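Hey L., structure's done. Input below.
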Amino acid sequence: MKVIIESEQFNRTLKRMTHEIIERNEDLSKIILVGIEKKGTPIAKEIQNLIYQFEGVKVALEVIDITPHRDDDKKNANIVIKFSESIFDKIIILVDDVLYTGRTVRAAMDAVMDIGRPSKIELAVFVDRGHRELPIRADFIGKNIPTSREEKIICDFLNRQVILK
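Output:
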């Protein structure tokens, strides 16, 4: 195992991503951050806090469990997805830790579209490791880390580091 992003760079990366979100979105009140459970949620919460710190705007935050929308055998149709905010005419920013094949993001987009029709869906990921199986790209990327398929990226939010395994 090798630590490739340490605490200080981890914090700087989150701040840079937040500034990019602020710069590309004129009306922050139209943003809903959506943390993809489980590892995208703490990153989404941190971005929400940083937007408030930098701009004084408390953007909406929702959490989504994509299990019923997966394309493998791990589906659980008993999970009902509801947001406390209406997503109509809003900018949804899906937030996850690592972008790999794109299948998780596809499932998250399907889940959002089942709830309603936003004006736009964007994607923020802390690490993009490549190896896409679907035509999906992130709008906001913390770090591009090319990997082999055998390697694994662990985004350790608690210790604020990224590990290559």
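The chain has a mean pLDDT of 93. The two ends are 5 Å apart (CA to CA).

-- N.
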